[in-house]
Amino acid sequence: MSKKYFFLSAVILAIFLAGAFCLAGFGCKGLSTAEQQATKPVVLEYWVVHDDVDAMRALIDKYRAERPYLTVNLRQLRADELYSRLIEALAEDKGPDIISVHARDLGNFRSKLAPMPKTVADATVQVVKKVTGNETVITPQTITLPTVNQIDREFVQTVKKDAVFDDQIYGLPLSLDLLAVYFNKDLLDRSDVAEPPATWTDFQAAAKKISRLDKETGKVIQSGAAIGTGANVEGFEDIIYSLFKQSGIDFVTRDGRATFNLRAEGASGEPASAGALDFYTDFANPTRDTFGWNAEMGDSLDNFVAGKTAFFFGYSFQNDTLKSRAPQLNYGILPMFQLNPEKPANAANYWLQTVVGKSKNQNEAWGLINYLTSAKISGEYLAATKRPTARRALIAQQKEDPELNPFVSQALIADNWYRGNNYTAAVKAMNDMVGEWLNTPIGLDESRLRNTRQDILNRAASKINQTL
């Protein structure tokens, strides 16, 4: 190729690119320095876990329609790989700008995150049709972000407790999840349980009636309820927390220290936690008449999907899983049972949208999070995904939806029991506690039994406190 031909080709390419840039709405009449700075190309890398990617993309596209200079690459990861992937990416200076972090993992991630600023700079781009042709209008603006007081006023209480450290906000939620009770209508009917239970006592009686055991081997043929063990019960730690809290037991202090092992001042004998833990584990204790579940039965969700258990404690996002995996399953959803309606308790289980501290695009990242979590846009997300809201103003509306009501009806009292630095270790401590409780030696005298059970509670509380 001759130098003359190469030069001509380069000129033509440059003219083509300039024309394309003009057609995109920039540069035709020249931009001011401020306009060029406000509309410089930005690429945001956004990692999510349980959020609905399709619904998020639709809303992000609406946001980008007025910000064509912004590109958002949305990527979904598994919960168990998020932290390790982030560490690897940060080590190579290729980390994401935004990540979705579980509220209970915020303590572990916080050193790698950036707190929310008071304002962000933004610019919208609109093409206005005029007689003389199209004119690109760039509107720079400063957006004020939520304050701590706004978080307290507009979101359910747990959000402020979880997302705010030293008066700085580290994330905002798109939704809020909490426990409810799924039940297999056909199993209840076949077991002559005419109405789904409304209380823990009713639930205990129904589960006992539904469970079927092999008379010779004692093996569970049909489970009344997937409850009583640790790791193979979805959200077992939240069920235990809810039972303890409903029993009036201070599970943890305000700063997160586990106190469920302590006796009330002046009390003798076992702490109140023993009764609550007995109630929970009796469903997996073969010496009790409520026995209908054990550690060998596999995962609680899998058993419910297969129609092998009548009651399953789960979260709202698992409703989609059930519809997908078991479309013919005839089931309903109940609010979490309460021991005392005057002092209800449920566990909040949700994710926060956060900005990575090493991000070079923190301004744009926080601008996008502010948009997605705003009342209007998050309302559109929730309508598309059928997930419970974390915003107070949307609760009444969602209560009208039969599928959402069992969850959102308890959103105002939902709380997060863990705010330490290693949630995985805390859950393991609770799993060990349940296992030890179930395997307490038979035949101990009253004094040794009481001491053994106290030691189990003490070990669990100590392990949890070591993670703070």
Structure description:
The protein is an alpha/beta fold. Helix content is 40%, strand content 18%. The chain has 19 helices and 16 strands. The strands form five sheets. A five-stranded mixed β-sheet has the order 2-1-3-15-4, covered by helices on one side.
What would you report as the Rg, rounded to the nearest angstrom?
27 Å
Overall pLDDT, averaged?
A: 91
Shape field = elongated
Biggest sheet statistics: 5 strands, mixed
Strand order of the largest sheet: 2-1-3-15-4
The CATH architecture category of the largest domain equals: 3-Layer(aba) Sandwich
CATH superfamily of the largest domain: Periplasmic binding protein-like II
- Termini Cα gap: 69 Å
Tell me the number of helical segments per DSSP (H or I, 4 or more residues long): 19
The structural class is alpha/beta
Fraction in helix: 25-40%
CATH topology of the largest domain: D-Maltodextrin-Binding Protein, domain 2
Overall tally of domains: 2
Number of strands: 16
Uncertain stretches: 1-25
CATH class of the largest domain: Alpha Beta
